[in-house]
Specification:
The structure holds two protein chains of two kinds. Chain A has two domains: 108 residues, Immunoglobulins (Immunoglobulin-like, Sandwich); 73 residues, Carboxypeptidase-like, regulatory domain (Immunoglobulin-like), CATH 2.60.40.1120. Helices cover 2% and strands 48% of the residues of chain A. Chain A is mostly beta strands. Chain B is 23% helix and 15% strand. The N and C termini of chain B lie far apart (51 Å). Chain B is α+β, with helices and mostly antiparallel strands. Chain B has 18 helices and 24 strands. In chain B, the strands form seven sheets. In chain B, strands 1, 2, 9, 10, 11, 12, 23 and 24 form an eight-stranded mixed beta sheet that branches. Classes of the chains: A mainly beta, B alpha+beta. Chains A and B meet through β1, β7, β12 and α1 of A and β3, α15 and α17 of B.
C-alpha cells in the first residue's frame, strides 16, 4: 500500500527575537489521508542540520482544523543577528494496521535575530476627515508590528536609521510614511476611507 | 455539479412542459389576468404579406421588461397602443430592479429645476436641503448635448467617453431627458435630491438622483411606502422578492425613513404599467424577428421561446411578484404579431461570452459571468437583440465603446461568490442560484492575501489589483484641469498630453488576471479562475464573515488544514478549475520568504502596503471574480430609435433601446429610460397594419 503523504506547518514564529533569547513556536503535522498524527515526533533543525528542538505533536487538533495535530516547542535565537533558515522535520511514520506508512516531511521557515531597537515610535491613527481616533489599525515598521488601542495609539520600538511606516485598517487605504529616525518620535497617520464605488453606484 | 465544462447548465431546463401544439393554444387562449381583450379572440391572424400564423396580436411588442422596455411599454400604452412585454425571466424589472436607481438625465429637467428652487416633491417627502447649489443645476439641452459629444474628455484610463457617441441619437437623448424625467415622476417614481452625475452623463452639471420609497406599515406604491421587510432593512441578512438587493438609507437625499434602490424605480414602473393595461408574458425568451422579407419590408412581429425558471430549492416554477396582466403561455415557440412595431429592449451582450469576446478575447472565459446572473438566469444579457437584428440586416454601432468604461469588465472586490456584483441575500427566490453572498473586502482588503491564478502563481501586485481608474462625469475632479462648474467643455487643454500623463492612473490588474498562463490550454487559452489565499491570522485581522450566507460549500470558498490540501480541494470542488494548482505551495513558501525579507521582487508590494505571512492554519481560499457588467455596443438606431440597416436605411417597424442599442457610452439607467421613452413614443405613432 502506498504511504500517506505528510504535511508540516510552522506558525507563531516571532517577527524578531533578540540574539540568544528563548521563544516558542508551533509545529503542526497532518496526514493527507486524514489519519491521526497524534504522537508523531517533530524536530527543528538549524541551517547546519543540527537538531535545536524536538517534541511530539499532541492528541488535540489545532482549532479550526480537521486533523492538524501540533506541538509547541521552545527554541533559542541564534547569537548572530540576521535571518536564519530553519527546518521543521517529521520522520516517516510507523505502518498502519492496513499496511500503509506515513512519509517523512519537512518545511522551512526563518528566524530573525535582532537586537532590541533603540527608538520609540508612537503612532496616532485618525480618520482623515473627522480626525476621530481609529482603533485596531495595524502599525507596521518591518518587521515590527502593533495595533492601535481605543484611542488610536500604538507604540513600536524600531532601530535607528531609515524606516518605512505603514498604518492600515479595515476599509482604509494604507497610510505610508518614509523617513529617518534617531530618537523617540510621534507620527499622526491620517487614514482615508476606502471609497471605492459601491455596488449601488455601479449598478445604477 | 457540472464539472470542467466550458459552459454550465446551472438551472433546470424545460422538461415535459414542451410539446403543446399551437393548435391547442389557439383553442384555449391560455390567458390570465387583466387586459385579455387586447388579445385576438382566436389568438392569431394571417399576415397579409407572408401568410403567417400568429399566436398573439398587439400594436406594440416589447422584448425585455427592464428600464428601457418598461418605459417604452408604458409610453406606448399611454398613447393608446395595446402593448405586450415579453421577458425571458420570471419577474419584471430586468437589471433595473437590481440597481442603485441613480437616474442621470439633465438638460434642465424638472428635478434640476425643483432642486434649484429648493422645493420639495409634490407629496412633501423630500425635506432634506438640496445637495447641489443652483449653479450646479443650471442646465440646458444644448449644454447637455455639448457634454455628451465632448471630444476633449479623456478619463484616468486614457479613454474617451464622449468622443465616439452617435450624434443624432444622443441629440435626441438630450432633448428627451426633461420629458422623460417628468414621465417617470408621473408613473409613481419618486426622486431624492440630485447628487452628482452618472458615468457618461457629462462633466458640466449635476444631473443624477436616486429613487426612493418611505418605510411604512405596508408596501403601497400609490402611497409611496414600503415595509422594512420588503425593503430588506429589517434583517441585514435577508432580502425580499420585492427588492432583490437590500435598499439603502436615503435620508441625506430625502428625509429620515427613506430608502432607495432599483426596487423603488422598477416596482413603481411595473405597478403603473400593469395598472394601465400593459401585458406581460414572462418566461418568454425573444429569439427572432419576423420581417416581411429577409432583408426588406417591415418588421411585423417576433418569435419567442418558453424559458421557464424553476425555484432552486422547491423545483417549482417561480412566480412574478405581481401577476395581474400576465399572459400565461407555456408552448415552446410562439409568434407574436406587432401591428405597429417591435421594440427591442432585451439588454446587451455581457452575458454571452462568445459575443463579448469580439471585444476582449480573454472574456470568452465562461468562469466569469455577467452581473446579476442569479436574478436574470442563464438567458440574461445574451445578445438576443443583436443576434436577431443582424439576421434581418441591421447595422451595429459603438462596438468599440465596450473598451471605454470601468464598468464593463472589471475585477470585483466581492470574493467567494460567482455572482459577485450584488448584495442579494437569502429571501429572494433566486438566492439559491447564487449560493453565497460573498465577502466584500473592499480595495483595502486586498492587502490581506495573495492572489493566484489557476496554477497557483501570483500574477500582479495584489494591492493594486482592484484599482480601476475611470471617471469622466460631474464634478469630475482630476479628470479635466477644471472641475465642477469651472469645467470648460471642448477645451483642448482637457486632453493635452502633459495633462493626461499627470492624471492617468489605471492599473492593469484585471488584464493581468485575464492573461494567458501556464494552465491555459488550446484552443481558447482560458486564464481560468483566481484565488485569494490567506491564513487564519488574516481572517482574524480583517474580521471577515466566513460563514453562511456570505460563504457556502458551493465551490467558491474553501478552507483546509494545509496549503496542499487547500489546492486539492479547489481543484476538486470548483467548476472551472481545469488544472491543478501545482505551484500553490511553492508560491506561499516563496511569499513567506518575501515577507520575512520585506521585499517582493516580483510585484514590489512592499512599496504599497504591509505584507503578511501566510502560515497559521487553517488556510482559506476565496474566488476572485472578473465581472462583465454592462455592454455598450449594439444595434444602430437613429434619433427616433428606429433600427438602421447596413445601407443606412430605417428598418420599418423596428425600434431598439437600452443596452440593445449601441453608440452611446453612458452607463446606467438614464440612457435606457430615455431610449424607451423615445421608442415608445414613435412606435405608438406608427400606422397600424391591417
Amino acid at each position: 500500500m502506498e504511504a500517506h503523504a505528510t504535511r508540516v506547518v510552522v506558525w507563531d514564529v516571532p517577527v524578531a527575537v533578540e540574539p540568544g533569547a528563548a521563544f516558542r513556536i508551533k509545529v503542526g503535522v497532518k496526514c493527507a489521508a486524514d489519519c491521526s498524527s497524534a504522537g508523531r515526533p517533530v524536530e527543528i533543525r538549524d541551517a547546519q542540520g543540527h537538531v535545536v528542538a524536538s517534541g511530539c505533536v499532541g492528541e488535540v487538533s489545532w482549532p479550526g482544523t480537521s486533523a492538524l495535530h501540533y506541538a509547541e516547542l521552545e527554541l533559542r535565537a541564534p547569537s548572530v543577528e540576521g535571518l536564519h533558515a530553519c527546518e521543521a522535520h517529521v520522520a516517516a511514520g510507523a505502518e498502519l494496521a492496513g499496511g500503509a506508512a506515513h512519509e517523512a516531511a519537512s518545511t522551512r521557515f526563518q528566524i530573525r535575530a535582532a537586537r532590541a531597537p533603540e527608538c520609540r515610535l508612537r503612532v496616532i491613527a485618525v480618520d482623515a476627515r473627522s480626525h476621530a481616533p481609529v482603533p485596531g489599525a495595524r502599525v507596521v515598521v518591518h518587521p515590527y508590528r502593533a495595533l492601535t488601542n481605543a484611542e488610536g495609539i500604538a507604540e513600536l520600538r524600531v532601530p535607528k536609521g531609515a524606516y518605512r511606516l505603514f498604518v492600515t485598517g479595515r476599509d482604509r487605504f494604507p497610510f505610508r510614511s518614509d523617513g529617518e529616525i534617531d530618537a523617540d518620535v510621534t507620527i499622526e497617520a491620517e487614514l482615508d476611507e476606502d471609497f471605492g464605488p459601491s455596488d449601488a453606484e455601479l449598478w445604477s | 455539479m457540472a464539472k470542467k465544462n466550458e459552459t454550465v447548465a446551472d438551472e433546470p431546463k424545460l422538461g415535459d412542459e414542451k410539446g403543446v401544439s399551437r393548435r391547442d393554444l389557439l383553442k384555449s387562449g391560455a390567458v390570465a389576468g387583466i387586459g385579455a381583450a387586447a388579445l385576438l379572440e382566436a389568438g392569431c391572424t394571417q399576415s397579409q404579406s407572408a401568410e403567417l400564423a400568429w399566436d398573439y396580436d398587439f400594436d406594440v411588442v416589447v422584448a425585455g421588461g427592464g428600464c428601457a422596455g418598461l418605459t417604452a411599454a408604458i409610453r406606448a400604452r399611454d398613447l393608446g397602443a395595446t402593448v405586450l412585454v415579453v421577458d425571458q425571466n420570471f419577474d419584471v424589472g430586468g437589471r433595473m430592479i437590481h440597481s442603485g436607481s441613480f437616474v442621470s438625465l439633465g438638460g434642465g429637467d424638472p428635478l434640476q429645476q425643483r432642486d434649484m428652487k429648493g422645493h420639495s416633491d409634490k407629496e412633501g417627502f423630500v425635506t432634506s436641503p438640496p445637495v447641489e447649489g443652483p449653479e450646479e443645476l443650471d442646465d440646458s439641452v444644448e449644454l447637455l448635448f455639448t457634454d455628451i459629444t465632448d471630444w476633449s474628455i479623456v478619463n484616468r484610463r486614457a479613454e474617451t467617453p464622449y468622443r465616439y457617441n452617435e450624434r443624432e441619437m444622443v441629440r435626441a437623448w438630450a432633448e428627451n431627458c426633461p420629458p422623460t424625467r417628468q414621465f417617470l415622476m408621473d408613473n409613481y417614481v419618486r426622486f431624492g435630491r440630485i447628487n452628482g452625475t452618472h458615468e457618461g452623463g457629462g462633466m458640466s452639471r449635476a444631473r443624477g438622483a436616486v429613487c426612493f420609497l418611505m418605510l411604512g406599515d405596508k408596501t403601497d406604491i400609490k402611497a409611496g411606502t414600503v415595509t422594512a421587510e420588503d425593503a430588506g432593512v429589517a434583517d441585514p441578512e435577508r432580502t425580499s422578492q420585492f427588492a432583490p438587493v437590500q435598499m439603502n438609507i436615503a435620508s441625506r437625499f430625502v428625509q429620515q425613513g427613506a430608502v432607495s434602490n432599483g426596487a423603488a424605480l422598477a416596482r413603481c414602473l411595473e405597478f403603473s404599467a400593469r395598472e394601465k393595461g400593459v401585458q406581460f408574458m414572462l418566461f418568454r425568451k425573444f429569439t427572432d424577428l419576423v420581417r416581411e422579407q429577409p432583408f426588406a419590408g417591415r418588421v411585423i412581429g417576433l418569435e419567442a421561446t418558453y424559458s421557464p425558471r424553476m425555484h432552486p430549492e422547491t423545483g417549482e416554477l417561480m412566480r412574478s411578484l405581481w401577476q395581474n396582466g400576465n399572459v400565461e403561455e407555456k408552448r415552446d415557440t410562439i409568434r407574436i404579431r406587432a401591428r405597429k412595431a417591435v421594440i427591442l429592449a432585451s439588454g446587451g451582450h455581457s452575458g454571452n461570452p462568445e459575443v463579448r469576446s469580439m471585444f476582449y478575447p480573454a472574456m470568452r472565459e465562461p468562469a466569469f459571468p455577467t452581473s446579476g446572473l442569479s436574478l436574470q438566469g442563464p438567458n440574461g444579457q445574451d445578445a438576443s437583440a443583436m443576434i436577431a437584428g443582424l439576421k434581418i440586416g441591421a447595422n451595429l454601432a459603438g462596438m468599440q465603446q465596450n473598451l471605454g468604461s470601468a464598468a464593463t469588465y472589471h475585477l470585483s472586490t466581492r470574493l467567494g461568490t460567482r455572482d459577485a456584483y450584488t448584495d442579494m441575500m437569502p429571501g429572494h427566490p433566486t438566492f439559491g442560484f447564487r449560493g453565497s453572498a460573498g465577502v466584500n473586502v473592499g480595495t483595502a482588503g486586498f492587502e490581506e492575501f495573495i492572489a493566484v491564478n489557476q496554477v497557483g502563481k501570483r500574477f500582479f501586485n495584489e494591492v493594486r489589483l482592484p484599482r480601476r481608474g475611470g471617471g469622466g462625469q460631474y464634478p469630475g475632479g482630476g479628470v479635466a484641469p477644471h472641475a465642477g462648474i469651472e469645467h470648460k467643455p471642448t477645451d483642448w487643454r482637457n486632453c493635452r498630453s502633459e495633462w493626461i500623463k499627470q492624471m492617468y492612473s489605471y492599473e492593469h490588474g484585471c488584464d493581468a488576471a485575464l492573461a494567458v498562463n501556464e494552465g491555459s490550454q488550446a484552443p481558447h487559452y482560458y486564464s481560468g479562475p483566481m484565488w485569494a489565499i490567506f491564513d487564519q491570522d488574516a481572517d482574524e485581522r480583517a474580521k471577515w464573515e466566513l460563514r453562511f450566507p456570505y460563504v457556502a460549500d458551493n465551490g467558491y470558498y474553501f478552507k483546509a488544514d494545509t496549503i496542499e490540501e487547500l489546492a486539492a480541494k479547489i481543484e476538486k470542488g470548483h467548476e472551472f478549475q481545469r488544472v491543478p494548482l501545482k505551484h500553490l505551495a511553492a508560491t506561499v513558501a516563496q511569499w513567506n520568504g518575501y515577507v520575512d525579507a520585506n521585499k517582493d521582487p516580483d510585484f514590489e508590494r512592499e512599496a504599497d502596503a504591509p505584507m503578511h505571512r501566510i502560515v497559521k492554519p487553517p488556510f482559506h481560499a476565496l474566488a476572485i471574480m472578473v465581472v462583465w457588467h454592462d455592454s455598450y455596443g449594439g444595434l444602430r438606431v437613429n434619433g427616433k430609435h428606429q433600427v438602421i440597416d447596413m445601407r443606412g436605411q430605417v428598418i420599418p417597424g423596428l425600434y431598439a433601446g437600452g443596452e440593445a442599442a449601441g453608440g452611446f457610452q453612458k452607463h446606467g439607467l438614464g440612457k435606457g429610460h430615455v431610449h424607451g421613452f423615445i421608442a415608445g413614443t414613435n412606435a405608438a405613432a406608427e400606422p397600424s397594419a391591417s
